[in-house]
Write a structure and sequence with these properties.
Elements: E1 2-7, H1 18-27, E2 30-35, H2 47-55, E3 63-68, H3 80-90, E4 95-104, H4 112-129, E5 133-138, H5 145-157, E6 165-167, H6 174-182, E7 185-189, H7 199-207, E8 213-215, H8 237-248, H9 252-266
Parallel strand pairs: 1-2, 2-3, 3-4, 4-5, 5-6, 6-7, 7-8
Amino acid sequence: MLIDSHAHLDSPRYDDDREEMLRRAAEAGVGAVLSIGIGEGPAEMQRAFEICREYKGKPGIPKLFASAGIYPHNAGEGDETALAKLDDLLAQPEVIACGEIGLDYYHEGAPHAVQKEGLIAQLLIAARRKRPILIHCRPKDGTADAWEDLFEVLDEHWATTGLGGVMHCFGGGWEQAKRSLDLGFLISFAGNVTYGKAQPLREVAARLPIDRILVETDAPWLAPNALRGKRNEPAYVVQTSQMLAELHNVAPEAIATATTRNFCRLFNLPPGMGN
């Protein structure tokens, strides 16, 4: 069984075939999906949770979990009402993580100081609710500025919680990977690890302990290389898993078993919960 640890199931790109898409995932061997609850902003962060409830118990559908959070670009919308909504969502049993949250200095968005303030506010809520966090971190090209600021915030406001989290769609180097491990994070790889120019990322993935990695799609974006440019979906996490198996010189089943075990350990879920 595989777990897609990060997919945007609430994307409008699935509105016409969401159930069929989820059935394809189950047929591909995906036993569970973590549906990311950021929407297009705080007004939509509940959609991932609603999708979990909508498909709960349906045969032929993977087990669905949800997250909730305010994306870095929307940090300026994180007022008291939005943060109270986040707190309420994290109290729901299906909502097992806070995210994706973090810092993005690559795109134009909220000012850096606003992003950091928004991140800290959400860390405090996640800590109270005892929910691990899903981190998005993207620096400017050729720099490590966002990473440096991120680790400064995490060292001060998160490390002592012991809750850990996931470095989602990891794109850093070995230094960032090592610091993430030291903070108790799992490191998740998406379809971009299969791209032709991603050799430095593959080298990082190959060095990581197998008990500290996850696989994801980040669907509907970042389809694996063989499907690049097409709409991504959870079924395609199989291809990313196969790449990690090659990098670690193990059978694909070993990656599936390890990443499922890692996911369950982080989120305090019983083994086999996706069956």
